[in-house]
Amino acid sequence: MTDSPRFDVRGFNHVALVCSDMQRTVDFYRNVLGFELVKTVELPGGMGQHFFFDAGNGNSLAFFWFVDAQDGVPGISAPEEKPGFGEWISAVSSLNHIAFDVPADRFEEYRRSLKAAGVRVGPIVNHDDSPSQVATEMHDGVYVRSFYFQDPDGILLEFACWLRSFGPHDVGHAPRTAAERRLQINA
Length: 187
Description:
This protein has 187 residues and is an alpha+beta fold. 16% of the residues lie in helices and 28% in strands. The chain has helices spanning 22-32, 107-116, 178-186, and strands at 14-18, 36-42, 48-56, 59-66, 98-101, 125-127, 134-135, 144-150, 156-162. The longest helix has 11 residues, at 22-32. It starts with 13 loop residues before the first strand and ends with a helix. The relative contact order is 0.13. This is VOC family protein. InterPro entries: Glyas_Bleomycin-R_OHBP_Dase, Glyas_Fos-R_dOase_dom, GlyoxalaseI/FosfomycinResist, VOC_core. It holds the Pfam family Glyoxalase. Residues 11-162 form the VOC domain.
């Protein structure tokens, strides 16, 4: 629950993505990640399907399968690769990745399990506040550990575990603007 005076937002109801093959998506999310398929919908007029998976804590991950959907464009509609393996920038208004919260004490076990299931996983990333934002060794400044992998459509996924709580000292950067981005691009 947030301290927002305007809205009692309790988290995400669902995040909806688009897949190219609903059967393959169901196989991956149900059989590899273990997400329960909780709702299926045939869209009106033969337009497609909308399926929902339980992602834990009352959150759902949903997928549309549209008959007329265009193929995604790696590097534009989603990252081309995983951090540590190649380019992971995506276009404005695209979904860059989804990070699932996992328990710290099972983090490395989950990575091994995905690898055993044939999923190509990226290296473990220990995120800290250093200039590179990545620690080569664990220390008290590492605030989250994560690794990245992709679903069958190339959607970038992450398993992440928080290692500490955030405080006022963690918010110290001024938000950048679209004008600044354009200046950087044109420089």
